[in-house]
């Protein structure tokens, strides 16, 4: 016999979150950072470099299945993200910068992630074992209203995740992987209730994630989902044979056709992956990372998934007697696989990004089990935390603009040497509006009115959106200056002008992409025998430089430094013209 649910929810607690408010919150999170900046280091500019190369390629369809950047294949074995970016560049009007066109396309991917996560949580909350306790005299939450409230909470939890802010606004394969993983999650969750939409989502999600740089993770998620569906069908068959109807069988379940559809989609994805030779799982040496770097991995997990990880743990504890239920088992699996990739590969944060929809789902199912005192504690913590961050943001911005107070001004100058502060009235107006909206939200949340199930996550989501808005308005110029290669490429242009070509030796992919995009330079590898008047060299080759460069042909012309990072130095050489 199934254990009773720990959720106790009245109908009055599942009132609807106004759609206009939810849409405005999503827009306030999505739109800041689209304009007013260029691609950032390092993965952002690198991915854009491959997209731009595909967009200008004339080598035919074969090049689209083998993206190259100056003869270098991408470190992430992805295809679809580069196709999306290249197509966005091709179809964008001439007056739109290519990098802006790509950011707009990837903003739609993040919006799609929000949509898929909401519907996945909604259909998981519709299952019988996820429903709240039935009251003796009625008054418990109706199933659809309860599911909608839980879904609102899941979307708020996803927006609140700190790790989503930067990576969710970059144009990298990681964001495409998140989009496809969330659709795979939605397809599995909604398949007992719908047919066409979930099947399409399953196909798009499974094939998309495997062709977006995470083939092993994608196949693991799909295979685990197939096994769970088979397990649930077996339990339903046993219950039917025993003439026993449990809580799960009282609601929609997975059909045989659904199981075979999932198996077929997974098999198709596996064939594509292995035929294109994409499966990779770069396991890090056990003694080096799995044991020696546990502390840094734990810190990453704590801050990246804040504030949802404590709620996810609480869900696993409060629903511990129903760990095999659909609304717990599926998100747990979709969180476990990316966690394994995080701890065993070199792509820690970008692997962990794929777990955020599942973490948010688990966090949402903690809401109906909270007591009022716990909700109040969470609210006051978030009020103090995000209000403090906003106050610090304003104080340091005023100091950067005016020099007062002097210590914050000196700190900013030290972090972004050479940056000249700019005043933008539009940015200030948007930042003031976001701050006023936050104050109103705090006043509303702490006011005396009926409690709603999703209210506990309103302040974390609103606070995260506020901080991102302040960063992308008040602080966008210094952040862009610090994270962009524009100052360094501008320094290169001032030294070399616009030559017919620039030779390079051992430059990184980000530097090559930045030289081609920001400087419009014709970069050519030195080792291919190019005859360029200038040469850019990575300092990493300094020890063996004399064995590669004949110094009777090249003269050292200086070191070009990116202002905020000495690790990105470039060595400039000028070819000696024979007399």
Strand content range: 5-15%
The total count of helices amounts to: 25
Considering DSSP H and I runs of 4 or more, what fraction of the residues is helical?
55-70%
Stretches where pLDDT is under 50 for at least 5 consecutive residues are 244-250, 285-292
Tell me the series of helices and strands, N- to C-terminal: HHHHHHHHHHHHHHHHHHHHHHHEHEEHEE
What is the average of the pLDDT values? 90
Shape: globular
**Largest sheet entry:** 5 strands, mixed
The strand order across the widest sheet is 2-1-3-5-4
Distance between the termini: 94 Å
Number of strands: 5
User: Rg from C-alpha positions?
Assistant: 26 Å
Structural class estimated from helices and strands: mainly alpha
Features:
579 residues, mainly alpha, five-stranded mixed sheet, globular
Protein model, in words:
The chain is mainly alpha-helical and 579 residues long. 59% of the residues lie in helices and 5% in strands. 44% of the residues are buried.
Indicate the topology.
Layout: H1 19-30, H2 43-56, H3 61-64, H4 80-91, H5 98-125, H6 143-160, H7 164-167, H8 173-190, H9 196-210, H10 215-241, H11 256-275, H12 286-290, H13 294-304, H14 308-318, H15 326-344, H16 348-353, H17 356-364, H18 372-402, H19 406-415, H20 425-445, H21 458-473, H22 476-483, H23 486-496, E1 502-505, H24 509-517, E2 523-525, E3 534-537, H25 545-548, E4 554-562, E5 565-575
Parallel strand pairs: 1-2, 1-3
Antiparallel strand pairs: 3-5, 4-5
Helix pairs in contact: 1-21, 2-4, 2-24, 4-5, 5-6, 5-8, 5-17, 6-17, 6-21, 8-9, 9-10, 9-11, 10-11, 10-15, 14-17, 15-17, 18-19, 18-20, 18-21, 20-21
């Amino acid at each position: 016999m199934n254990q009773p649910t720990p959720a106790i929810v009245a109908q009055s607690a599942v009132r609807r979150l106004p759609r206009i408010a939810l849409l405005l919150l999503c827009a306030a999170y999505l739109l800041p950072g689209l304009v007013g900046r260029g691609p950032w280091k390092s993965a952002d500019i690198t991915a854009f470099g491959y997209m731009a190369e595909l967009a200008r390629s004339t080598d035919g369809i074969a090049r689209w299945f083998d993206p190259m950047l100056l003869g270098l294949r991408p470190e992430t074995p992805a295809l679809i993200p580069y196709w999306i970016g290249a197509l966005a560049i091709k179809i964008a009007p001439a007056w739109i910068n290519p990098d802006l066109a790509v950011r707009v396309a990837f903003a739609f991917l993040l919006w799609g992630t929000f949509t898929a996560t909401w519907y996945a949580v909604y259909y998981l909350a519709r299952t019988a074992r996820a429903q709240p306790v039935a009251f003796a005299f009625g008054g418990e939450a109706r199933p659809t209203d309860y599911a909608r409230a839980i879904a609102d909470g899941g979307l708020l939890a996803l927006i609140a995740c700190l790790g989503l802010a930067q990576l969710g606004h970059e144009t990298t394969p990681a964001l495409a992987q998140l989009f496809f993983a969330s659709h795979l999650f939605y397809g599995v969750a909604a398949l007992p209730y719908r047919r066409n939409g979930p099947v399409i989502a399953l196909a798009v999600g499974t094939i998309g994630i495997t062709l977006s740089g995470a083939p092993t993770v994608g196949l693991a998620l799909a295979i685990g989902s197939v096994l769970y569906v088979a397990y649930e069908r077996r339990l339903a068959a046993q219950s039917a044979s025993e003439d026993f109807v449990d809580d799960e069988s009282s609601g929609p379940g997975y059909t045989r056709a659904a199981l075979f559809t999932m198996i077929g989609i997974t098999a198709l994805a596996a064939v594509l992956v292995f035929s294109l030779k994409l499966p990779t799982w770069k396991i890090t040496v056990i003694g080096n990372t799995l044991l020696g770097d546990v502390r840094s991995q734990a810190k990453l997990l704590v801050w990246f998934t804040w504030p949802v990880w404590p709620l996810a743990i609480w869900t696993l504890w409060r629903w511990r007697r129903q760990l095999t239920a659909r609304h717990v088992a599926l998100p747990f699996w979709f969180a476990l696989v990316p966690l394994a990739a995080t701890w065993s590969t070199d792509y820690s944060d970008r692997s962990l990004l794929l777990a955020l929809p599942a973490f948010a789902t688990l966090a949402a199912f903690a809401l109906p089990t909270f007591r009022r005192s716990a909700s109040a504690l969470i609210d006051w913590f978030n009020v103090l935390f995000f209000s403090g961050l906003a106050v610090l943001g304003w104080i340091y911005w005023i100091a950067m603009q005016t020099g007062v107070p002097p210590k914050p001004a000196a700190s900013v100058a030290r972090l972004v040497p050479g940056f000249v502060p700019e005043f933008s009235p539009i940015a200030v107006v948007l930042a003031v509006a976001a701050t006023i909206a936050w104050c109103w939200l705090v006043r509303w949340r702490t006011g005396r009115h009926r409690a709603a199930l999703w209210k506990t996550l309103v302040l974390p989501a609103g606070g995260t959106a506020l901080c991102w808005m302040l960063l992308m308005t008040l602080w966008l110029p210094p952040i862009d200056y610090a994270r962009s290669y524009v100052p360094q490429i501008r320094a290169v242009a001032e030294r070399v002008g616009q030559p017919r070509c620039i030779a390079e030796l051992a430059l990184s992919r980000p530097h090559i992409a930045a030289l081609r995009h920001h400087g419009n330079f014709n970069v050519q590898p030195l080792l291919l025998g190019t005859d360029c008047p200038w040469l850019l060299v990575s300092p990493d080759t300094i020890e063996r430089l004399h064995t590669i460069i004949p110094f009777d042909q090249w003269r050292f012309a200086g070191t070009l430094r990116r202002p905020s990072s000495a690790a990105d130095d470039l060595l400039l050489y000028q070819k000696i013209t024979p007399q």
